[in-house]
Amino acid sequence: AVLVESLLVFGVVLSVHAVVWDRFSWCALALALQAFYAQFKWDRLLQQGGAVFQFRGAANSGLLPASMVIPLLGVVMKERCRAAGIVYFERFGVVVASTGMLLALFLSVLAVGITKPVPTNTCILTGVAGSVIIYTMKHSLTVSEVIEVLEVLLIFVYLSMILLYLLPRCFTPGEALLVLGGVSFVLNQLIKRSLNVVEGRGDPIDFFLLVAVVGVVLLGLFFTVLFTFMDSGTWISSMFFHMMTAVLGLGVIMPWLYRLIQRNPLFWLLQFLFQTQTRLYLLVYWTFLAASACGVVFYQNAKRSSESKKHQASTITRKYFHFIVVATYVPGLIYDRQLLYVAAVLCLAVFVFLEYVRYFRIKPFGQTLRHLLSLFLDERDSGPLILTHIYLLLGMSLPVWLFPRSCAPKGTLPGAGALVPYSGVLAVGVGDTIASVFGSTMGEIKWPGTKKTFEGTMTAIFAQIIAVALILIFDSSVNLNSSYAWILASVSLVSLLEAYTTQIDNLLLPLYLQIMLMA
């Protein structure tokens, strides 16, 4: 299964390399080769219990698929922005690619360094790949860009040491690379932009995303340290939690956002949300869907009798939420992507805040949330945090957040790139959902080495092709320019990756589909 997963990742890397064919795509190829070898060292460390931190069990390290996401995103973003003639974002793509390669190399070197005896062949390969990447960076990056890449690496190292210690068994090494690498990059961007504020420059919704992500992470770190010295389950601690959340929100996060957007954040947000009648209709519709999702949670818990406390929700029941999320995102993508962008940021902040309430058992809702959500746990929620619903939101939102709007003058990219914002809907909302439902109910032929079925994968590919056809009918901004063969190949590769990967597919699949469509 690991070998097939690696072959599929190499397929994506070679596809991007064939389209781009420059020094960075060669570096991505070298990185993939060394990550393939280093991945087996990580897998051995996890099996022997020799890793420095406690990682999520029942999964391989996932180093290769995770290592390639950020570099390939940077490479394809660079190419798209170069074709559009936007130099600033072309250089930004170069920084993203270089940062991703350096973070992946660091994780590989870490695995090689703590493996006993020292693996000679992997050391040599890592050294060669590292030399190629550093040589390319030396001749491609300016001094300020090199400093920026090193800043992200430094933040990543410290953030990893803190969060992997505080949150055992929540991530595999690959998932830690993706999540903590992304948070480190966002934090560095926020610091950089805060120090170089130019009035009128930058989109307020981008600043809103940066401040929201950094704000919820800092909030979590603050309360984690605080509640190591006091019991978080008492009423006094709960009152202190809510009071300090209000103080940090109104006293730190709001002024920070005010400095960036040069206006009152609350007034800006209200004006933005109710700017047009279409937005008002979408907000009412989304409120109805949110109430429906809560209704599903309460109904499923009501069905759980006192005699069957160990009862867990079935796969099909959990996929109800995927259908609700698809129904949420598709109208937003068609009618108002900026509103969807901001609404997804708000939802992320709410989800993370509620997880803090559940994790710290904050009164009056902490214990209730623990009881309600325990029904929907699966084997991937082996750590103290429940992250699968947050990963689902991220998987649907990242293609919207990472879409290079400045490099798409008409609001959409040409060819298959027009489907980039729909990557989460196609890969997770349609593909993963259909594969799980049909595979668990009608699947008989299993892929070698996995529990996934051939019928589920084929049905998922077919369903995504139908979804693309429906998008063409209902979204007039999408024009594929006869790039149907590339779309079919992209969907097929990502669907096969869903069958073989043991990583969080809600997070990984949309990013790989976005890379393929942007390429």
TrEMBL record:
Keywords: Endoplasmic reticulum, Kinase, Membrane, Transferase, Transmembrane, Transmembrane helix. GO terms for cellular component: endoplasmic reticulum membrane. GO terms for molecular function: dolichol kinase activity. It is a multi-pass membrane protein. GO terms for biological process: dolichyl monophosphate biosynthetic process. Its EC number is 2.7.1.108. Its main location: endoplasmic reticulum. The chain crosses the membrane at residues 7-37, 57-76, 88-112, 118-137, 149-167, 207-227, 239-258, 278-299, 320-335, 341-361, 382-402, 422-442, 454-474, 486-513. Belongs to the polyprenol kinase family. This is dolichol kinase. It comes from Pheucticus melanocephalus (Black-headed grosbeak).
